[in-house]
Amino acid sequence: MASGMCRWFSIQQSGYRLRFHSSNLASQLWIDPHAREESLQFFRDYLKPGDRVVDVGANIGDTVLTASLIVGVDGNVIGIEAHPRTFGFLRDNLQLNHVRNVIAINSAVGAIAGTLRFSDDRRDDMNRVDGGNLQVPVERLDKLVPDDLPVNLLKVDVEGYEKFVFEGANRLLKKADCVYFEVSSIHFARFGYSTKDVLEMLVNAGFRLFRISSPASLSPITCEFDTVHFENLVALRSEVAFSSRTRWRIGA
After folding, report:
1. Which of 25, 81, 143, 196 has the most CB atoms within 10 Å of its CB?
2. Is the pLDDT of residue 127 over 90?
3. Is residue 217 within 8 Å of 45, Cβ to Cβ?
């Protein structure tokens, strides 16, 4: 990594390869190629051929490529990444795998259009809106995905900026079946809001809330749920449709 020669190597994943770029995620996978298997299992169980996926905070593309393989030529994936260097890694990984069903967008996502100051931390998977040295464009998700086609899965992982992503996605949320999103009260506090604020937004948009309680199992939660640790939650439009897709168990 210090010499830059790592980019000449690739890391085999389930059905695709990732370039060994100088990034945190690529480094973890170089050490342990199976490090992301548990995290990606939800997407493998949920997605079907022909689905449409929107990934906000796509990083170097492991979720995008996993989704791309499953949805196939009749589906499509929109991968959105704010950091310009990380976006370059994402685009390179798409080219490495000769992907044709992914649209990659280099932009931050928020409540209003404009520009934002973005961090440029060495731990690139932790870069976020924070008044840092980089200036990046920001756009509303409703503008980046302007059509009225249904979205089977919306994934959001933006290091604490989730509330503002949802504020700019009123129309997209109405046509989304499932939202997979990260929460952490520590991250949210940096931007002056709480986990409850995010959860109430999704409930008001017609979703029911769940946490992944064990492999292949969801447990319902209320808007009072909170955690200081990073945790991915799931918001569902229809529990019946989700169960039919995944055969996951949904607790009472």
Report:
1. 81
2. no
3. no
